[in-house]
Design goal:
By secondary structure, the protein is an alpha/beta fold. Helix content is 41%, strand content 19%. It is built from 14 helices and 13 strands. The strands form two sheets. An eight-stranded mixed beta sheet has the order 7-6-8-9-10-11-13-12, with helices on both faces. A five-stranded parallel beta sheet has the order 2-3-4-1-5. Strand 8 and strand 9 form a beta hairpin. Helix 9 crosses helix 10.
Length: 374
């Protein structure tokens, strides 16, 4: 199955190093090898590949050289910068990693002006719409998530076994490569607590009390899980960004089947993943600045998502499982952001409708399958 980012990556490889980041097993290596039939592939996890990289002994006649997990190399940015500056293109260079390549390996020279960054997410309804009906895809994501292998296998037992191996590899291999963390059991407990709090704001102090650790450590662990694409934050919207960053965020999982706080939270998580994926696509392919927030007043009025593009609130989105009656806070925030598209996405719905102030109630699966924010 061809991934939606493939044409953009092929085009940009002609002039820049491509950094392809994303969750482990989201399909980065498969996508990289689909760029061209003539490639050299090196995985830094393999000792023989590391030796070849140190000797810089790859076939320069190949069309593409793929460096996988190279962010684990000390001063990897300086190394790839030197290769690019001295040898140039061709061959073309594609760097992949399951840690966030924009933050990992901070030591060394910057790649500014030499690279474009792409972020590959698991499947969403839009990407699989050519092979499966939206409602069926949504039900499948609720059971087995959107990661390519379990999604295509579509087997509950396979997903449970895959999830165990996937999580274990992240905690016992990737996390140790990123940071010297020894208390794996507490981090496993932290992940379990966050799975149960999807859709709710998260207090670092509360989590710290639950696992008997200090808030600073808990916050640091969560930041590591963000870097490894286990989860991502959605923060409250504020015109003053500094105020927004101090308020309690919500956290969502890239593996949508991980959520254990009820179907409503799981549906909300699927929408969050789809919106973030589309915003990252817009940033990576078109260069716009984007952000995903939620809205909440001191009086308790709340809307699940505010989509911000170029500092403008473009969409206000509320997610419901089966309630198609109007969500009143959409009216309140709609008055504050009159130019924004106001949507109430409902999973189980008999009839779509629009209200006088422009608030739309739409079938969640169909809207996500056609998601287009700009």
């Amino acid at each position: 199955m061809k991934r939606s980012l493939l044409p953009n990556i092929r085009q940009d490889l002609e002039q820049k190093i491509i950094l392809l980041s994303g969750p482990r097993q989201s399909g980065k290596t498969t996508l990289s090898k689909m760029v061209t039939e003539e490639y050299e592939y090196f995985n830094y996890d393999y000792p023989e590949h590391r030796a070849d990289l140190l000797e810089m002994s790859w076939d320069r006649k190949k069309d593409l050289v793929i460096f996988d997990e190279i962010h684990k190399m000390p001063k990897w940015k300086s190394w790839i910068k030197g290769v690019y500056d001295v040898e140039g293109i061709p061959p073309r260079y594609l760097v992949t990693g399951s840690a966030n390549l924009s933050t990992a390996g901070k030591a060394g020279d910057s790649l500014a002006g030499r690279h474009f960054l792409y972020r590959l997410h698991p499947f969403d309804l839009k990407e699989v719409s050519s092979i499966i009906a939206p409602e069926d895809a949504l039900e499948r994501m609720l059971r087995v998530g959107g990661f390519p292998e379990p999604f295509l296998q579509n087997d509950d037992t396979f997903y449970r076994r895959w999830k165990r191996s996937h999580t274990d590899t992240i905690l016992r291999q990737d996390l140790l490569d990123l940071e010297s963390v020894t208390d794996i059991m507490s981090i496993e407990t932290l992940i379990e607590l966050l799975r149960r709090r999807v859709g709710s704001t998260v207090s670092y102090s509360s989590l710290a009390r639950d696992i008997s650790r200090d808030p600073k450590t808990v916050k640091q662990w969560i930041q590591h899980l963000e870097t490894l694409y286990v989860l991502f934050p959605v923060r409250p919207y504020s015109h003053r960004i500094s105020r927004s960053l101090r308020k309690e965020p919500k956290y969502y999982f890239f593996d949508t089947a991980q959520v254990s706080s009820g179907e409503g939270a799981q549906i909300e998580n699927i929408v969050a993943c789809a919106l973030l994926k589309e915003l990252h696509r817009i940033e990576d392919t078109q260069g716009y600045s984007t952000a995903l927030h939620f809205l909440r007043t001191k009086e308790g009025k709340e809307v699940d998502f505010a989509v911000v593009i170029e500092d403008d609130v473009r969409y206000l989105i509320e997610v419901k499982t089966g309630d198609s009656s109007l969500h009143k806070p959409l009216e309140h925030f709609g008055d504050l952001f009159p130019e924004a598209v106001k949507l109430q996405l409902v999973k189980n719905i008999t009839r779509e409708k629009t209200y006088p102030k422009g608030i739309q109630i739409r079938r969640l699966s169909d809207w996500l399958a056609q998601l287009q924010l700009v």
